[in-house]
Amino acid sequence: MIYDWIFNPLTVKPIDESMTNVVITVDWRRTATDGPFLASAYGRVSLSPPQPSLFTPFGALTKDQVQSWVIAKLAEYTGRPDIVAQMDSVLAENINSQKSPTAVAMNPPWGE
How many CA atoms lie within 13 A of 56 on its CB side? Predict the structure, then answer.
């Protein structure tokens, strides 16, 4: 199973004190794939304004940096430091259900 993060869009405040394009919200998606099977969870986190001395210009942001912000906020919101492991477990269960469904929708035999 392959897990990944997608962060898009990043909402910015164009000007905040002496800083420009300050990220204020991150829309995130956590995906799990196993061959043709895909499961995902998504959400949005709000960020506190950074201290000017710790500010990273928008063009210098990395996926790892944004990922660390999102994970920290999710852990804070849920009170669970293991939130990513919990999310991955739910995604894996979803994929396993897709592989071995317990119920399947079928069209009626008379062709409607």
Answer: 12
Closest CA to 72 of 63, 61, 81: 81
Q: Give the tens place of pLDDT for each residue, 46-69.
A: 999 899 999 999 999 999 999 999
Residues 32 and 95: beta-carbon distance below 8 Å: yes
On whether the CB atoms of residues 11 and 30 are closer than 8 A, the answer is no
Q: Where exactly are the structural domains of the chain?
A: 2-99
Taking the model in full, what pTM does it have?
Answer: 0.88
3-state secondary structure 23-76: EEEEEEEEEEEECCEEEEEEEEEECCCCCHHHCCCHHHCCHHHHHHHHHHHHHH
Q: How far is CA 70 from CA 55, 88, 102, in A?
A: 16, 15, 34
Residue range 5-50, pLDDT digits in tens:
999 999 999 999 899 999 999 999 999 999 999 999 999 999 998 9
